[in-house]
Give the backbone structure.
Amino acid sequence: MDDQEKERSIQYRKLSAYKYQLREPFEMTTDIWPEQDIETPYMCLTIDGNLQVRKSYAWDGPSGPTIDTKTFLRASLVHDVLYQMMREEFLDYRVFRRSADDLLKVMCLEDGMFVFRAWYIHLALRIFGETHARPVRKSESQKMTAP
């Protein structure tokens, strides 16, 4: 690719559809403490567990055969951020996945979800969630160019 082609091309990657986007930043303290601060354009997790999700972060909400309710949205945001950090290898999914799943359950209960629903959602995450926390293979996150 010559300089002229490079100048008018874009670099992109395909994404899954997102349902929600933050209109204001969100911040909370977690019990997930990475060895070093994690900083990306849309999120930050400090070594003392302070999680910041920046305005415009997009996420797909609760996954699986479930209903998106207000008692599930805040927890799904935090859980999606933490799983993204695992997929991008900022956090080791073998170390932090259980804590992320447990935090989702706690947040759902804090936000008024029925105990039984929070329990079965947590159980489903523990059984089926690992594939969504594992690091993405290089071929799946390949950069694409157009035109």
Remarks:
- The chain has one domain: 17-56+66-132.
- The mean pLDDT is 89.
- Strands lie at 10-12, 20-21, 26-29, 38-39, 43-45, 50-53, 58-59, 144-146.
